[in-house]
């Protein structure tokens, strides 16, 4: 299998720096590598920069220093089309699934928006939607519902399902279960593991919850006081 590596190399982030201002350093010289089919767990107290690091790895924000490398190619040097491909290959999933869906549209609308990006034929779209619902364990009826008619767990399943339609190589999961009831949290974590086993997706799992990180991750880093310390290698 072709090995696609996603790497953070000596990444530092400062907010509010300018010509005459030093700004605030969030973290300094952070390095780690993501691998297909595996989970890197990023833990640490709140406010230490976990989400910032996640957004940088997903290409949504730039580091002040250092580089994000996909197969050795720096994100900062990518042309527009290459960057668009990167954004397709590396997806991000957030804490609150209600933010992921337009409250005024039925679920099928939000799903079809993603499918349109893929330029697939109508029959192919229908087929991949059905397969996706099977994967995430929801009945086809949910397509006709509005987000408010679904539970947090169901919506988080759908948020994942919509990402899976894009067949990403990596997903940055930023506190994916923190907004859910404890019983539902475990279901989502098991679903994430199943999907990873079946599709070989690499995860950067961000959580302040050590139990979640330990359960899910092959390798673990702790972001604290501006530094990343490896806890499990
Ligand atoms: P965590 O996810 O670990 O809770 P964050 O990455 O959300 O941490 O935030 C880390 C620090 O960076 C916080 O002190 C936060 O206030 C600051 N921060 C985050 N985003 C910005 C921004 N856009 N501008 C300025 N400061 C920010
Ligand atoms: Mg955060």
UniProtKB/TrEMBL annotation:
Record key words, sorted: ATP-binding, Nucleotide-binding, Transport
Keyword ATP-binding in record: yes
PROSITE patterns, per database record: ABC_TRANSPORTER_1, ABC_TRANSPORTER_2
Alphabetical list of Pfam families matching this protein: ABC_tran
This protein's name: ABC transporter ATP-binding protein
InterPro entries per UniProt: AAA+_ATPase (IPR003593), ABC_transp_ATP-bind (IPR050319), ABC_transporter-like_ATP-bd (IPR003439), ABC_transporter-like_CS (IPR017871), P-loop_NTPase (IPR027417)
GO molecular function terms listed in the Swiss-Prot or TrEMBL record: ATP binding; ATP hydrolysis activity
Family annotation (CDD domains): ABC_NikE_OppD_transporters (cd03257)
BP-aspect Gene Ontology terms: transmembrane transport
Domain ABC transporter: 6-233
PANTHER family recorded: D,D-DIPEPTIDE TRANSPORT ATP-BINDING PROTEIN DDPF-RELATED, TRANSPORT ATP-BINDING PROTEIN
């Amino acid at each position: 299998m072709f090995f696609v590596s996603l790497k953070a190399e000596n990444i530092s982030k400062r907010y509010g720096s300018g010509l005459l201002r030093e700004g605030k350093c969030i973290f300094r010289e952070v390095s780690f590598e993501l691998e297909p089919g595996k989970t890197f767990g990023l833990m640490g107290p709140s406010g230490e920069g976990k989400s910032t690091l996640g957004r940088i790895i997903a290409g949504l924000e730039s580091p002040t220093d250092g580089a994000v490398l996909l197969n050795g190619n720096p994100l900062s040097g990518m042309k527009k089309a290459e960057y668009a491909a990167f954004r397709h290959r590396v997806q991000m999933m957030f804490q609150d699934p209600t933010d992921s869906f337009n409250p005024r549209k039925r679920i099928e609308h939000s799903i079809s928006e993603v499918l349109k990006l893929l330029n697939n034929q109508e029959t192919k779209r229908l087929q991949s939607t059905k397969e996706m619902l099977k994967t995430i364990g929801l009945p086809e009826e949910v397509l006709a519902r509005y987000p408010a008619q679904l539970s947090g767990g169901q919506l988080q399943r759908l948020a994942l399902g919509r990402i899976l339609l894009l067949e990403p190589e990596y997903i940055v999961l930023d506190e994916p279960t923190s907004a859910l009831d404890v019983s539902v949290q475990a279901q989502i974590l098991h679903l994430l593991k199943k999907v990873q086993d079946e599709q070989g997706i690499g995860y950067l799992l961000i959580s302040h919850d050590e139990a979640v990180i330990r359960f899910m991750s092959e390798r673990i880093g702790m972001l604290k006081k501006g530094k990343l310390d490896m806890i499990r290698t």
